[in-house]
């Protein structure tokens, strides 16, 4: 069987986390200079809620 289903809608990786489902934000200190530290915080991507896929219906 070589039937191929032409899927029109394929899962789109979340643009915010790149499909990883979580984002790593650089911890910044200092309100004025905004100096970035080496500390990185892994946070759940709020855009896709950790699924790694962009929500459908946005376009
Ligand atoms: Zn995401």
Distance from first to last alpha carbon:
34 Å
Strand content: 25-35%
Q: Tell me the radius of gyration.
A: 17 Å
- What structural category do the secondary elements indicate? mainly beta
H and E order = EE
Protein name: Molecular chaperone DnaJ
Biased composition (Basic residues): 1-11
Region (Disordered): 1-34
Describe this structure in words.
The structure is a single chain. By secondary structure, this protein is an all-beta fold. It has a domain at 13-53. It is built from no helices and two strands. A two-stranded antiparallel ribbon has the order 1-2. A hairpin with a 5-residue loop joins strand 1 and strand 2. The two termini are 34 Å apart. The structure holds zinc ion. Zinc ion binds next to loops. Residues 1-34 are annotated as: Disordered. Residues 1-11 have a biased composition (Basic residues). This is Molecular chaperone DnaJ.
Characteristics of this structure?
59 residues, mainly beta, two-stranded antiparallel ribbon, rod-shaped, binds zinc ion, Molecular chaperone DnaJ
What's this entry about, in short?
The protein is 0% helix and 31% strand. By secondary structure, the chain is mostly beta strands. Residues 14, 16-17, 21, 45, 47-48 line the site of zinc ion.
Secondary structure blueprint with pairings:
Elements: E1 22-29, E2 35-44
Antiparallel strand pairs: 1-2
């Amino acid at each position: 069987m070589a039937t191929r289903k032409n899927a029109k809608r394929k899962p789109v990786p979340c643009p915010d986390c790149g499909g990883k489902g979580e984002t790593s934000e650089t911890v910044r200190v200092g309100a004025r200079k905004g100096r970035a530290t080496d500390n990185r915080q892994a946070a759940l991507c709020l855009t896709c809620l950790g699924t790694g896929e962009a929500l459908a219906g946005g376009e």
